[in-house]
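We give the chain.
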Amino acid sequence: MTLASVQGEASGGFLPAFPDWLTVLLGVAYGIIAVVALGTIPGNRRPSSAMAWILLILFLPYVGVVLFLLIGSNSIGRRRIRNQEEANETIRANTTAAELREEDYKGAEWLRSVVELNRTLGALPSQSGNTAKLISGYRDSLDAMAAEIDTAEHYVNVEFYIMSLDDYTDRFYQALEDAHRRGVKVRVLFDHIGSLRTQGYRRMLNRLKGIGLEWHRMLPILPLQGRWRRPDLRNHRKILIIDGRVAFMGSQNVVEPGYHRRGNRKWVDLMTRVEGDVVAALNTLFVTDWYNETEEILLEELETTPRDRPAGNITAQVVPSGPGFVTENNLQLFNTLIYSAQRRVAITSPYFVPDESLLRAVTTAAQRGVTVELFVSQSGDQFLVHHAQQSYYTALLAAGVRIYLYKRPFVLHSKHLAIDDRVAVVGSSNMDMRSFELNLEVSLMLLGTKMVQEMHVVEEGYRANSSELLLADWKTRPPLARFVDNVARLTASLQ
């Protein structure tokens, strides 16, 4: 009787009877895979992610290895990393951070260190003399962007994760066409995979080609052209700059609010319109991304024109993040602000899947008496991410975090943070491991009571359309639901 036949009988005949040599070979291969995984996967990777990958490979070695080779590395490529480092050096050498005004930090000296942190990690300085306006209406923001494009005289720089042509966005593309026709330089960047999987993508491409303006895919996956990388590394930024004079940024894509999906779900977003020197910082980010996709350096747009007078009195700082940076700039900013809070933390995120450090920062803030509120959607648009998010609710509620569920059929897609009456942060970054490690993101830190008060007005609108989740009610959910949440939480760590 052979070893393989004994194994087959011991298992009740359910396992195939392999030849002895093949059984030994598979065993040796498994041992090699296990040893290599234990010695290589933890390197430069957070422990939870490393453990999730190791468990997958140990339980499903061959499937796990294939998946790891496909999506196990978050490197964006040596050329892009080098370009980002060179851009950071150039920015630091040619920009000077504005001195914080007394009203920016009075009673909160720690704000100086936050500004310095952002400068060290993301290179861009703090800048005073800006205006900022929050726009929460979905149609309102598209109309506002189109209206500003209509005033363009020199250039329009467009960069969005998702761009689609439909009834909601046709006015936006018409404005781009009109600007191009009157001699304005119009450039468009959109994420390849993010836009490709959205209905209306082909119509959008045909429209851009018909207009004749310059457009490029960001992080394209084009194997036949030798352009390949981890397919879920994405440029998630949403930025529009007109003439270096006015800019928009935030969470909203250029697509109708239902994303062309079945059902009646609608996305709720928040955009910010800014004027002042901070517009140049946002444009610097666009110029860097344009260079990464085209090898063209837009030197003339990096030159800022001195202003006769400030546009306003808001101090702002742009914080870029993504795999092109060595550090997780957005995560470090969020953690620092939450640990610095003394009275109130208000978080809005459609995908709240924190790593250990962020979870500890949020729960610690609540446990030390800070009022912590989390606004999330009652039902998510991504099954695994939503269930992974739910797996954290028990720990958050037990610590004293108040969770508000934005009622279906709406998807609360806004991404912002407010700390005390001092700081508001708005942008494209979710509070999940994907946004920290895999996505190119942009956040805008706004200092001052005025912006925080405006943010709280937006939050009150969310609260009016939300129901509060209570710990006692959450504990009564079925065991199967808990099981699904916990499995999804494990998959979220495979970054």
User: Anything to note?
Assistant: The domain at 329-492 is CATH 3.30.870.10 (Endonuclease; Chain A).
